[in-house]
Every structure is written in structure tokens, then in C-alpha cells.
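Re: folding output
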Amino acid sequence: MRIPDLSEACAAELASLCWPDGFRCPQCGHDHGWYCSTRRHYECARCSHQTSLTAGTLFHGSHVPLTKWFWALYWVGTDTGGISALRLSQLIDVQWRTADSM
């Protein structure tokens, strides 16, 4: 199964879950900032604090794309008998150790 590249859609969904009322700086609480697409982070307009979308989440520090994380969450959540790390690694095309740690 080929996983389509929906990374922007996954990022938008994660942003709406993290900040349901729009961006809010975790440092000072200011509600205005901008997204730097080249470095993939948000910067506060008041204090210039930079934060990533995955900061403070289980995705933080992971090199696995958000698309694969979302698919892994889907497969783990919908499989009634429990999914093995080997099967998950085959479904989302990652190494067994990566799937096991997910």
C-alpha cells in the first residue's frame, strides 16, 4: 500500500488540535505569529519565540513524517485484535524497530 503525501493536511489538522483558536505563543501567550515554511516553525510576533508544531507532542523529535504517524495511529486504533509491530511496519513502510517504538 502506497501512502499518499498528505503532510500538509496532517500538519493543518495537528495545528487545529494544538491551537483551536489560532496560534498562541507558548512563551508569552500572544496570539499573533507567522509560519516560516523553510524551517517549519512558528515565530511569535511579540517575543520572537520559535516553536514547532510537534513541540510537546508525541511527535516531537521524531524523524518519521506526520503522514506515517497519523496512519500508525489509525491502524493501531482501528485494529480490533491488536496490530503487531511487523504488520504496522509493512503497512506504513518503516523499519520494524520504528513501528515497535510507535
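--- second protein (sequence, then structure) ---
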Amino acid sequence: MIRRLYLLAIASLTMVLLVMTAGSIVRMSGAGMGCPDWPKCFGYYIPPTDVETLTWREGKSFKKGQMILHEERFLVAQFDLTSGERFNPENWEVYTRHDYTHFDPLHTWIEYINRLIGALTGIPVLLFFLLSIAYVRKDALVTLLGFLGVFFLGFSAWLGKLVVDGNLVPHSITYHMFSALALVAIYAYLIGRLQVYTLSFRSKRDSNITRLAWVCMALLLLQIFLGTFVREEVDIIARQGSLERSMWIESLSWIFKVHRSFSILVLGGIGLLAYWIIRMRGVSAWPRILLALVILEILAGMALAYLNMPAIVQPIHLIFAAFTFAVLVYVTVQYYRKTSSDVTS
């Protein structure tokens, strides 16, 4: 039982990190509105690959809810129909959730793949919860977290719908990000809790590491939160299109300067945490991995700041932040739990 739950927790975390990676690529490529509706894409389960699919013509059949791009507007079929000799506006309704009126097949499929990965993430998440119900008497917290995983995945999907319906409303994007981080925290914690791992050093030092780990987690979350505001400002500047990319950094508000300087605190805290763990445990891979990830995240941030915001670096910066958070949660659990005697196979 414990082995299956452990593997499902790993699979769930892997899929959540993968969907965050896919989402960051969507943002980098500007494909966030590649599918203007949700959960379908232009009213189709499998999105179109050519604008011809979205073009009205005589004798063409449409299902209710499918969309066409007509006179620079998206229209939605009111019911199943076959078009006649002339376009009949009474058969169609203007799509009014937003005024996005562009079709790019590449953007459409990037966004569709992102949604597909998100849907596939539900498989290990749901299986974990269902299997954890039988484990509730041994460890009710595992079952509770399994339920919260299902809840936050559904909540994240709902926020994704709001992002699409609101044409990438900035604050909904931030909420979407943090709902994904909640999933990262849940499954990183579960992996640490379910893993058979015994620690033998003194409880006083355990508690010091735990406190510092919680401080580092708070600093990292605040840094990510500031980063989402910087990203929103960058999106606004990019949409205006009045400045060259090399001028974007200079146009950012004081939040960018705080975000940039705050990285020193994050690096210092995680560096101290890694040093404490290595000093007490000797050879230990995870604190070194954690420190390497936060350094790579900062280097990616420096590349964004000093190399004119290269688009490819934007998802890399986010990915390193998400992986750093996952490893930090895992390390915190490992050094909070002094023994694994309460975990049985």
C-alpha cells in the first residue's frame, strides 16, 4: 500500500511540475489565448489546425457551440446546423466573454497541449486519493492531503477557465500560479512523509533546521509572489508595444527592484540551510541540489534583467523556482520527521 501511494505521489508531483512547465511555455510564446474558450477549443474537443475550419461556407455542417471567425468576430453556433446559400446571423451568437479575435494554429496547439497535460495530471492525483481512503486509519493526514490534491487541481482548472474567460486577467494568473504551488507543496510533502527515511541527530538541531526551512519557504514564496507582479507588468508593457524589448526593464516599477534585491535573502537563507544540513549529515545530495536550483534560478533572473528579457529564459526562471520550492518542501519534511517509525509498508 505505502509503496503504491509513494509512487503515485511522485507521479502527481512530476505531472504538476510538467504542467507548470507547459504553462510557462504558453506564457513565453504568447499562446495563452490560443483557445479562446474552455474547456473545449473553438468548440472542438480536438482543436483546428487551419483557419478553414473556422470559416463559414455554404453547405458546411457545424455542431452547437462550435465557433467561426466571421467579420473579425468569433461567432458561436446556437444549435447543430448546415449552412445555406447565405450567411444567417440568427444561427450564430457573438462570443462576448472577451474581444480576442485572432487564430494562430501554433498558439492553439501549444495551449491545447498545456490543457491536455493538465487533464492527464488528474489521473495520478485522483488515483492517489482513492487509494489513500483505504489508508485513512493508519495515517489520516495522507488521506486528507490526497483530497486536498484533488480539490486544488479542480480549483486550478477553474482558475484556468477564469484566465481564459478574462483574456489573461493579471491577478487571476497570479492566483493560478499559487494554486499550482499548493499542489507542489502537497505532493512534495507526501513524498517525504511516505518515504521510509530515518534521521538520528539531536532533536534540538532538527528543530533549528525546521525553523530555518520554514523561513526559507516563506522567503521563497514571497519572492515568487513579487515575481508574478513583475511578470504582470512585463505583460502590460509587451501588449502596449510602444517600447523596444531592451527598454522593458527600465520601465518596470519599484517592485522589480525589490524582487531583484530580495533574491539575496533567499540565497542567503537557503545557503545557510544547506550548510547546516551538510555539516550535520555529511554527504547529502538534497541540500546541494536545493542550493544549485536557487543559484540557477537567480542566474536566470539575472539573464532576464541584463540581457533584455530573452523570451526563452522566462519559463526557465519559473521552472527553477517551482523545482526549488518542491525540493525545499521535501527537505523540510525530511528534517522535521526524526524517524519514519510511524510509516509502515
